[in-house]
Amino acid sequence: MRVITRREAIKKAGRFFMGASAGAFSQTFLSGCSDQEPRQDIIAHVMKKTENTDIENIKLTVIYDNFPYKEELRADWGFSCLVEGLDKTILFDAGRWDDTFMSNMSKLMIDPQQIDELVISHDHPDHVGGVMKFLEARPEINVTLVKSFRSGFKKAVRKHGAGITEVDEPSMITKNSISTGEMKAFIRNEQSLVILTNKGSIILTGCSHPGVVEIVERAKMITNKEVLLVAGGFHLFADYGSNLRKIASRLKELGVRYVVPTHCSGEKAREIFATVYGDRFLDGGVGRIITANDLAEEGVS
User: Fold this and answer.
1) Is 27-291 in CATH node 3.60.15.10?
2) In the chain, N or C terminus with fewer CB closer than 10 Å?
3) pLDDT tens track for 74-83
4) Residue 60: helix, strand or coil by DSSP?
5) Which DSSP category does 149 fall into?
C-alpha cells in the first residue's frame, strides 16, 4: 500500500475540492490568521470544570489517513481518529469517503455505539465525508463543530437526530477534553481537540489551517499545560524545506515532546520532523494506534 497524495485524491473525486488553491500559500503566509483572542473569563470557566485523565488510559486509533500503516486498511486522502480513555469516547473527524471510513472502522473492530461524542475540526470534505453514514449507525449523538459550518450540513446532521454544539470560544467537550475554539484561517476556520492528561496535553489537529504553531500556542495559553503530543494534519505539503525546519524547531521550543505529522503534512515535512525530533517522531497512518507506551515520560506533570 502506498501514500495517497492530495492530487490523486482530487483526481479520484472527479472535481477540484478542499480549497485546492491552498497549496499556493505557505505556512508563513498563514501565520497570524488566527488573530482573535479568546476571552479570559471563558477560559477560566472552562478550565475550572475540567480535570486530567491518566495517560495510561489513553488510546488513539487513526481510522482514516492517506498515509498507510496497516496493510488491511484502505488509505485515502482525509483524516479521522478515535480517542479512548477519557470520561467519554470521542471520534475526531470522519474522513473523505463514507465507504472507506466505515470499512476501516469495521476492520479495526470499532463499534459506532461505543462512541459518545463526534468532534469535527472544520468544514472540508476530507474531514466530514463519513459523518452522515456514521450518524445512520449512531444517531442522537452530540456533534461539536465550529460556527462557520454550512447551514445545510448542520441541518443534515439534525435530521439524523444528532444534537449540535457550535463552538466559537474555547469550550469544554468532555470532562477530560476541550476545544481550542474556532480559530480563523485564510482557507477555512478550524478547531482542534485538546486532551488533558496528567503528563501534559495531547493536541489533535484536522488540517492546521490556522497554523500548527498557532494552534499549539493557543492550546498552551488556554490550559497552561505543557504539550505531550501533537498529532494530525499539519498542512505543510506545499511548504519548503527551510520553513519546515523553522516550524519543527519552533514546536520544540514550545515544549512539544512528541509529534505525529500525517494527512496533509506532506512527505518532506515528515522527513524533517523525523530529523528534528528523532525517536520522538512517531509514524502516523491509517490503523496506527498510539498509547502511553509510545509516549514514555518521566517526571512530567
Assistant:
1) yes
2) C
3) 999 999 999 9
4) strand
5) S
